[in-house]
């Protein structure tokens, strides 16, 4: 039987019950946590990508992506409150739907975290290179700061930051909660300053035509911009520390997503209204624009002197310079340069933790959970992950990486939404600190929303996800299934992380 290997939820929860946390978080704290987690990389680096796909219609794209995220968040919150342990969606799936589904979810999360870290590395590179060029009036050759699809050869700054973060993870350097909070303040302050300066100089003529590529373009932009919302799981996983979670969790989740959506709409409106956001290179016959991150778009942008926001690798900083605030543009570039490395660190740490948990379940080689004798970190898998992230960042454009990451994320979210409905049927009496409201309406909407965004991704991303999934199935049946601890009858309770490496940062939002 393919679906007969289920890890006992009671065994998983046994340790969690021993380390119950004090319920101190109210609705306001949860909302602030969510805002800090969600606002970040996506809005800094994917605004130009969304503009090339949807034009001014990207404002609708933000609403669609936020709507889907809200319903997925409500489903995620119930599972997080029931199973407050390591492993996230992988552990939830193992407890509810069995090993094969858990393996596929874990395999998808590997795709999500590593590729997302690559995307953020490329985004960091764009802002830092732009800052250096404008602050010191120099021109850095595109050959060394852009990948081959973007008109360069290799993105060395993106490789550098990925390598630096890998080194920090191996050494086990800890950041303080104060530093993380400071970085959140920097990002939110930078975006607030952008809104304050850009919105007053809006020209409503720049909003026409509103949807130059129709609703298909809006859907495609929503699938990409979904990357800007992921991070709400920081709220979902705080259920164990929440006062009156049945009331406060929905307020925190929906409240933070609503505020972030409004913030994103203001930023998008500022970009569109001040400098315009029409796609470059629309084919009149097919009504398709040039693909973001393609050689064709890079050539078209070069021909027009890069005088369009869709051509910029640092859209918000570029916009500020265009409307007469060059120093503010540099400040925004500096804010991104300071804040985004912590994002890469959190994503790579999440990647290594998923690998670590899967390795301890016997599904991946033991070497992946090997701990460095001096630094007490999983150095083997951290180095492997770092090499992969550096290669992704060196050769692929940010939008393509974000889309590939989204494919894994959407699969995992859909699986969690299914798991919530399944466990309502199979274990209705289980204590749930938070219950998803109207579960048989909420969960199907979340699943359909994830499917809608998935099939609005570009075909390359969908194909790569399917290839990755096929490779995962081969690995599972050729290696993992025969070595699984559950399959061998070794039911262990190790979610207490007694042998896990200490995290390099405190439990904090992933800041995408």
UniProtKB/TrEMBL annotation:
GO molecular function: amino acid transmembrane transporter activity
TM regions (residue ranges): 27-46, 58-77, 89-110, 154-172, 179-201, 213-232, 253-272, 331-356, 377-398, 404-424, 436-455, 461-479
Subcellular location: Membrane
Gene3D superfamilies per record: Amino acid/polyamine transporter I
Cellular component GO terms, alphabetical: membrane
InterPro entries documented for this protein: AA/rel_permease1 (IPR002293)
Record field: compositional bias (Pro residues): 500-512
A Pfam family this chain is assigned to: AA_permease_2
Keyword Transmembrane helix among record annotations: yes
Stretches the record annotates as Disordered: 490-512
Keywords attached to this entry: Membrane, Transmembrane, Transmembrane helix, Transport
Subcellular location, principal: membrane
Protein name: Amino acid transporter
Organism: Sphingopyxis fribergensis
């Amino acid at each position: 039987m393919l679906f007969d290997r289920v890890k006992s939820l009671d065994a998983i929860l046994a340790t969690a019950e021993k380390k119950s946390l004090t319920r101190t978080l109210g609705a306001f704290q949860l909302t602030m946590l969510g805002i800090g987690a969600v606002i970040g990389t996506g809005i800094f680096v994917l605004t130009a990508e969304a503009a090339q796909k949807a034009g001014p219609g990207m404002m609708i794209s933000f609403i669609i992506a936020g709507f889907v995220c809200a319903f997925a968040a409500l489903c995620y919150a119930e599972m997080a409150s029931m199973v407050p342990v390591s492993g996230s969606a992988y552990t939830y799936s193992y407890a509810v739907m069995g090993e094969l589904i858990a393996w596929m979810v874990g395999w998808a999360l590997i795709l999500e975290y590593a590729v997302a870290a690559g995307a953020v590395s490329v985004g960091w590179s764009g802002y830092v290179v732009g800052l250096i060029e404008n602050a010191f009036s120099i021109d850095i050759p595109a050959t060394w700061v852009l990948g081959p699809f973007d008109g360069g050869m290799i993105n060395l700054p993106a490789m550098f930051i990925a390598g630096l973060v890998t080194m920090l993870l191996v050494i086990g350097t800890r950041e303080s909660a104060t530093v993380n909070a400071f970085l959140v303040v920097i990002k939110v302050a930078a975006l607030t300053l952008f809104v304050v300066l850009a919105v007053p100089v809006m020209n409503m003529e720049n909003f026409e035509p509103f949807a130059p590529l129709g609703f298909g373009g809006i859907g495609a932009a929503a699938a990409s911009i979904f990357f800007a919302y992921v991070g709400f799981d920081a709220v979902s996983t705080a259920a164990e520390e929440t006062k009156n979670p049945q009331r406060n969790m929905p307020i925190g989740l929906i409240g933070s997503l609503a505020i972030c959506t409004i913030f994103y709409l203001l930023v998008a409106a500022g970009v569109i209204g001040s400098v315009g956001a029409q796609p470059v290179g629309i084919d009149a016959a097919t009504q398709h624009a040039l693909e973001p991150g393609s050689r064709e778009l890079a050539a078209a942008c070069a021909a027009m002197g890069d005088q369009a926001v869709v051509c910029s690798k640092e859209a918000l900083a570029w916009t500020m310079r265009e409307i007469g605030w060059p120093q503010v543009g540099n400040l925004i570039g500096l804010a991104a340069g300071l804040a985004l490395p912590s994002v890469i660190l959190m994503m790579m740490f999440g990647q290594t933790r998923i690998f670590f948990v899967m390795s301890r379940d016997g599904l991946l080689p033991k070497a992946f959970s090997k701990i460095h004798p001096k630094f007490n970190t999983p150095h083997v898998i951290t180095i492997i992950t770092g090499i992969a992230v550096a290669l992704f960042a060196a050769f692929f454009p940010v939008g393509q990486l974000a889309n590939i990451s989204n494919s894994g994320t959407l699969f995992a979210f859909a699986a969690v939404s299914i798991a919530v409905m399944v466990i309502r049927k199979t274990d209705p009496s289980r204590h749930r600190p938070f219950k998803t409201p109207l579960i048989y309406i909420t969960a199907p909407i979340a699943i359909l929303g994830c499917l809608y965004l998935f099939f609005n991704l570009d075909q390359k991303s969908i194909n790569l996800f399917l290839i990755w999934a096929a490779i995962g199935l081969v690995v599972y049946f050729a290696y993992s299934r025969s070595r699984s601890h559950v399959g061998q009858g070794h039911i262990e309770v190790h979610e207490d992380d007694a042998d896990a490496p200490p995290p390099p940062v405190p439990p904090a939002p992933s800041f995408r």
